[in-house]
Design goal:
This protein is an alpha/beta fold. 15% of the residues lie in helices and 28% in strands. It has 7 helices and 23 strands. The protein has a 7-stranded mixed sheet with strand order 8-7-6-19-20-21-16, with helices on one face. Strands 9-10-11-12-17-13-18 form a 7-stranded mixed sheet, with no helix packed on it. Strands 1, 2, 3, 4 and 5 form a 5-stranded antiparallel sheet that branches. Strand 9 and strand 10 form a beta hairpin. It is globular. 45% of the residues are buried.
Length: 435
């Protein structure tokens, strides 16, 4: 039923509803801008239909605003992919997260696509993401989400057999999400909900779109997925260059649905995986050129994590350890072998970790998990989970939380300097404390 959009908010529950924002228009998709918020401040809120409070004005409905851009405050993020199924596995993954973090939730969460199965309809989003079948209520009242779309979400945007120019693409996913398209949260404005960027403290995030390809129409193919047309650039890749050139944050994390490297329910070398190939061959070289640190994807219904690699944009058979591996260790701080990325010198910015997190409700009964670029994989008929990563100063740590409640994988990247001494280069390793 259409209602007004009214939000009450204040820095204490007792202060509600002294501040409010909203519109009198009767709508079903609500978007309200809260003004005069202070950075790194906790606010409590309630949602009203203009007559009654329908949600909130209690201790569970609260959020903390983001820090001043460029600040050094730590950021912790929850990442889930291929999750909107309304099944038992989705509930197990959600519960393992709540059991681990409880009231100490991350700053926000990212969706890696295929957010609502099977076709991304409005009803599927309501039932399997926002409804009681998913029961993400404790997250929605505490954490903002910043999504990217997947191929299943796109089934309600356009038919795979049809071509729609990306700026004209529309559907339930785009009706539901409300993301920063005009640089409100940092980054270069994209002008589209298709893809966007934002900052949190000293981290730059890129939410990209691996679905804006076209098999037959070159002008509608913004990632280069067509085997029939040559590809050099598009409005998307031009924006990506501009955004990364303008970035001044030391950490960069990108995420999109179709993984460049995987051997799970999808295979990197399958000839029909043209969207995965397009992201690997046309988008990842741009990301690595600008020193992107970690790439998160979904689509393949497993968890996979690469070594620190560079310059690998081919099929698994083309992988060369000597050429493509920057650091072939475990990357684990507990082993004393975290990955080190240099911020200056001849290898400044070299090395990216690729993570596939596509089993947050989906699973693969017959996963191979033999991709040569990967250090670790988790895939089977009961193998589901989610990822949490944290950036604190010069250190990034990513962890994989299985639905069993166990952290089965972790990796750490530490940024370090190269100090030039006379004609020699001295590589300065940071001090490492083994927990």
């Amino acid at each position: 039923m259409p209602t007004q959009s009214i939000v009450h908010y204040n820095t204490s529950i007792a202060g509600l509803p002294s501040q409010f924002a909203g519109t009198p228009a009767l709508v079903t998709d609500h978007s309200v801008t809260l003004n005069s918020l202070q950075p790194m401040t906790e606010y409590f809120f309630g949602v009203s239909d203009g007559i009654n409070i329908i949600s909130g004005e209690d201790s569970t409905h609260r959020f903390t605003t983001w820090p001043t851009p460029g600040g050094t405050e730590p950021v912790r993020v929850w990442a889930i992919g291929d999750f909107g199924k309304g099944n038992t596995e989705q509930m197990q993954v959600k519960q393992s997260f709540i059991d681990e973090f409880g009231d100490d939730m991350p700053n926000f969460w990212i969706w890696l696509g295929d957010n609502a199965y099977d076709e991304g309809t409005d009803q599927e989003f309501q039932d399997k993401v926002f409804g009681t079948n998913s029961n993400y209520h404790p997250m929605f009242t505490r954490m903002p989400f910043l999504p990217c779309p997947g191929n299943h979400d796109y089934l309600s945007v356009m038919s795979p057999a049809l071509t729609v120019n990306p700026p004209d693409q529309d559907g339930p996913y785009f009706d539901i999400v409300d993301v920063p398209t005009n640089g409100e949260m940092g980054g270069v404005p994209s002008g589209y909900e298709l893809y966007y960027s934002y900052d949190y403290g000293n981290v730059h995030f890129l939410s990209l779109n691996s679905e804006i390809g076209s098999i037959f129409s070159g002008s509608d193919d913004w990632i280069g997925s067509s085997p029939f047309n040559s590809f050099s650039s598009s409005p998307f890749t031009q924006w990506l260059h501009n955004d990364l050139q303008a970035n001044d944050k030391p950490w960069v994390i990108a995420y999109f649905h179709q993984p460049p490297h995987t051997d799970g329910s999808h295979d990197s070398d399958a000839f029909w995986e043209v969207y995965m190939k397009a992201m690997r061959e046309n988008i990842c070289p741009i990301l690595e050129t600008y020193g992107v640190d970690v790439v998160y994807s979904g689509h393949s219904h497993v968890y996979e994590r690469s070594y620190l690699i560079n310059g690998f944009f081919g099929d698994p058979g083309d992988f060369n350890n000597a050429t493509h591996i920057v650091d072939g260790s475990s990357g684990k701080l507990s082993d004393g072998t975290p990955y080190v990325k240099y911020v200056d010198g001849p290898d400044a910015g070299v090395g990216t970790v690729y993570v596939v997190q596509g089993n947050s409700a989906s699973k693969d009964d017959d996963a191979n998990l033999n991709h040569p670029a990967h250090y670790f994989g988790h895939g089977c008929g009961t193998c589901v989970g989610s990822s949490v990563f944290e950036v604190n100063g010069d250190t990034l740590t990513g962890r994989y939380l299985a639905a069993t409640g166990d952290f089965l994988d972790d990796f750490t990247i530490i940024k370090s300097s190269v100090v030039t001494v006379g004609d020699e280069i001295e590589f300065v390793q940071p001090e490492i404390t083994i927990a």
